[in-house]
Write a structure and sequence with these properties.
Chain lengths: 180, 165
């Protein structure tokens, strides 16, 4: 069932029905975003689950309507990433360094795509969660700047500033890997 | 490195290029967990003790305000001093009092007035602030007694005796 078909269904009455519809409509898109914002699949799954659990615990906090509830979920997800980034900052950054060292030992010719993914992953991991979310939403998901601002609840100029800074950071990080 | 090249690198290394979605089992398990995490309505009763405590506190406060000592009506002003005049005895009317009382015996007592009153004038207990003592005897000298009571409880008794005239 497509997302639009799920959203076109009549509005449910109970909190359980509403949450079920929310999950069915947004979990795939939210997982994709989480996967791009996190270091691995497990972390992404945890983030998505925690975001929906927050919606379950505070059903009144989730605004009505497709776009507002999507924005609420995205903001919650990014906030969860920020919390995790702060809590595990030192450890995760150290882990990124270790993974980077491991990646550098991987020969390039057998799995070029895997190397590219690891490179991008390592570069994205250097960004702060909000900046990373801006880059992922705009560069990887193709969301317009205005829409990114709406989803994250920030001003467009903030999004542009984050994009500019992220491109600069990513360029310097990836330039070492891709001198072309 | 320009923006297009950067975008190309990012898309080539997109972490979600292969992990596009949760598996069906993962999605079902997560959905079940999320739906069971909805707080039950019974959990709202957690607020009941706090609500009851608050209501009780408010009730006590309201009672204290409405029935507290500061809410009592002020004591009525002291009754005006009344002078009790003894009726003239039928047989032997007392001689009129001199304009300036020649012999007055003010007695100022700090003892409770009612006790004094009971001890000396049990017959006139009905009147609290006025004591009236008729002539002790028809043939004896006339005695007039004037009592003053102050709001503080002090009672002043003036006794005039015609015999001392």
């Amino acid at each position: 069932m497509t997302t639009s078909a799920i959203l076109d269904r009549p509005q449910p009455q109970t909190a359980t029905d509403r949450l079920a519809r929310l999950f069915d409509a947004h979990h795939e898109r939210l997982f994709r975003l989480a996967r791009r914002l996190s270091s691995d699949r497990e972390e992404a799954r945890d983030l998505v689950q925690e975001a929906f659990l927050r919606a379950a615990r505070q059903p009144g906090a989730v605004p009505g309507g497709e776009k507002p509830e999507e924005a609420w979920l995205v903001r919650t997800l990014v906030n969860l990433c920020r919390d995790r980034y702060r809590r595990l900052g030192v450890r995760s950054r150290a882990a990124v360094e270790i993974r980077r060292e491991e990646r550098e030992t991987v020969p390039r010719h057998p799995e070029e795509a895997a190397v590219a993914r690891a490179t991008v992953q390592a570069a994205l991991a250097r960004l702060s969660p909000r900046r990373r979310a801006v880059v992922v939403l705009h560069e990887l998901e193709g969301v317009a700047v205005r829409e990114v601002a709406r989803l994250l609840g920030v001003a467009e100029v903030t999004v542009r500033w984050h994009l500019l800074a992220a491109r600069r950071d990513l360029a310097s990080l990836l330039l070492k890997e891709d001198p072309k | 490195m320009n923006d297009d090249r950067l975008r190309q690198i990012l898309r080539e290394g997109d972490p979600a290029a292969q992990d596009t979605a949760l598996s069906e089992d993962e999605a079902h398990a997560m959905r079940r967990m999320v739906l069971t995490a909805i707080p039950e309505p019974r959990r709202r009763l957690v607020w009941l003790p706090a609500l009851a405590t608050g209501a009780a506190a408010l009730l006590v406060l309201a009672l204290a305000v409405s029935h507290g000592p500061w809410h009592r009506t002020p004591a009525p002003p002291a009754p005006p001093v009344r002078v009790a005049a003894a009726p003239a005895p039928a047989i032997a009317p007392p001689p009129p009092l001199a304009p300036a009382a020649p012999h007055q015996e003010p007695v100022k007592s700090s003892r409770p007035a009612r006790r004094l009153h009971v001890r000396h004038h049990a017959a006139s207990m009905a009147v609290a602030s006025v004591s009236k003592q008729p002539a002790l005897a028809a043939s004896g000298p006339a005695v007039r007694e004037v009592q003053f009571s102050t709001p503080g409880g002090t009672r002043i008794i003036w006794v005039s005796s015609s015999s001392s005239l």
